[in-house]
Amino acid sequence: MVLDALRKDVAEEEMPMFNELSTSNISFEKAIAPSYWSLPSHASMFTGQYPHDHQINTDGTGFEDVPLIQSLNKSGYRTYGVSSNTFVSQHYGFSTDFDEFHYTLSRLFSEALNVYDPEFKPDSNGKFSPLKRLANVTLAATKDNYPIKSYWNILVSGLKKSPISLADVDFVDHPYLDPNPLYSHIPRKRNTNLIHSILKRESTSNSPFFIFSNYNCMHHPYFPPKELRERELEFNHTYKDVKKYNQLAHPAAFLQEFRDSEPSEKFLSAIQTLYRGEAVSLNNHLTSLIECLEEFGLRNNTLLIITSDHGENLGEIDYRGERRVGHFESVSDHLLNVPFLVIHPQLSQEQINKTASLKNIFKLVQRVASNSTLTNDFISENIVVEDEVGISEHPARMTPIFDQYPNVHPDIINRRAFQHQCVGYYNDLKLVLSTDEPPELFRDGRKVSIENCPDQLMSRCRESLTKLKEAHPLNDAEQCEKLPDQTQTQLEHLGYL
C-alpha cells in the first residue's frame, strides 16, 4: 500500500490503525524516498534502482515494463493494481504487466471504459483531435463489457471539459463533474471496494497473489469528506472556501503569492487542518482493509507493506530557511523521510533506526516470493541500505507550470529546471549536493560545517550526482525553449543563463 504524499509525523498523529500496526510489527524510522515525487519513487520501488539508473524521472518518461511484476508473474503470482495516481497507471505504462489493473481516478464507473486512455488521444499525425477521439471512444464503448456505463463515462468526461462545469458550477460540491478529479472522495472509495472484491475472490484460491494499491487522497488538493470536516475537524468552511484555500496551496501558486511576503497563520492552519483530515479519512480505509483481511481469513498468511512514495510540506520553514507547501523543489525531511511498516504475524515489534530505502522493496518482495522465511532480521537485511547511506535523487525537471505562474522567484526556477540535486542520509547527518551550489551539511536540523562530513557520505553522494548528470545531461538551450520569455529574461539578468 502506497499512501501517496503521507507524512510520517501525520501518520503517527492522525492514524490510529497505523500506530496499532506499528506496535506489533516492524517500523523503519529512517526510510528515505528515492525521489521527491511519485514517478521516480515508484519506479525505484518496482525496479530496485535509483533514479539515475532507471531514468524514469520526467513527465515525458514512463514504464516500458515493470520488472517486479514480471518477476512475480513468473513465480506464479496473480498480480493486481489499484491506483488513483496518474503516474502509476496506464498513462505512464505502469499497468503493462499486471494481470488486472484498475485506474480509479476520473471515471464515473471504474469497471467500464477508461475514456482517458492514451490510445484515444492522438490521431495519425500524433496531434490531438477531439472529434476523432470522440469517434474512437464511442466505438470502443459499444464493444466494452459495460457499454451503458461506458457511455456515462463519456458523458461525464465531456461535462468536465465544458465551459459550464468550469465557470458556472466550479464552486458547487459535485465530485463527479469537478474538472479536478482530486476534489472527490470517489477514488479512495473505489480503491477500497476493488481491493475488497479482489481479496474476496482470492480467499477461495490456493494460488499466491500480489496487490499494489496507491491511495492519492493525501496529495494536494486537500479535501477530506464534508462530514469529517464538520464533525471531527470543526472546519466549518464552505466548498468554495476549501477550493480557494487549495488554489493558493498549489505549490507554484504558493511560491508566487508569497514571493515577498509571509502567509497568514489562518491560511497555514487551514491547509494543515485539511491535510490532517485527509489522514483521518485514510485511516478509515486502512482499517476497513485490515478488517477485510481478517474477514476472509487472509490476515495470517499475507505480508502487508505500508509506505508512502514521498511526504509533503505544509508551510513549515525547512533547514534552508525556505517555506514550501506540497513537494515542489524541496529537500525537507517532511518530504523525504517517509512512513514505512512491514506487517506479518510471524514478525515481532521492532523499531529499526538504521537508514532504509524504498528501492529495496523490490528486493524484499522478490525474496518473499521465493518462499523465504519471514523473520525480523530477514526484513531488516533486505530493506536497510548496505552502505548505511540513504540516497534521494532530484533530477532537473522542466514542466509547463511556469507558464501559469511566471512570477515564481527565478532562484527557484533555476534550481528546478537547471540543477540536479542529491540528498544523502548517514546516521544523524544529511548532505545536500547540487550541480551549481555549494554542498550543505545538516545535523539534527541545524547547518554545520561541511568539514564535518564523513568521506563515506560525501563520496556516495558525489557518485550519485555524477551518475545523475550522466543520465540526464543538462542542455540550457533545450530547457530554455520550455520557459516563458519573461522567465528567460529574469534568469539571464541574474546570470543563470
Describe the structure.
With 497 residues, the protein is of the alpha/beta class. It has 3 domains: 306 residues, Alkaline Phosphatase, subunit A (3-Layer(aba) Sandwich); 72 residues, no CATH class; 111 residues, no CATH class. The protein has 21 helices and 16 strands. The strands form 4 sheets. Strands 2, 6, 9, 10 and 11 form a 5-stranded mixed beta sheet that branches. A 5-stranded antiparallel beta sheet has the order 12-13-14-15-16, covered by helices on one side. Strands 1-5-3-4 form a 4-stranded parallel beta sheet, with helices on both faces. Helix 6 packs antiparallel against helix 7 and helix 9 packs parallel to helix 13. The longest helix is centred in the middle third of the chain and has 31 residues.
What global shape is seen?
Answer: globular
- Helix- and strand-based class? alpha/beta
Distance between the termini: 43 Å
CATH superfamily of the largest domain: Alkaline Phosphatase, subunit A
Which regions contain 5 or more consecutive residues with pLDDT less than 50? 163-168, 493-497
Mean pLDDT: 87
What share of the residues does DSSP label as strand, in percent? Answer: 15-25%
Describe the oligomeric state of these chains in a short phrase.
Answer: single chain
As for the CATH topology of the largest domain, it is Alkaline Phosphatase, subunit A
Task: Report the top-level CATH class of the largest domain.
Answer: Alpha Beta
Q: State the share of residues found in helices, binned by percent.
A: 40-55%
Number of helices: 21
Number of domains: 3
Q: How can the largest sheet be summarized?
A: 5 strands, mixed
CATH architecture classification name of the largest domain: 3-Layer(aba) Sandwich
Q: Would you report the number of β strands? A: 16
Radius of gyration: 23 Å
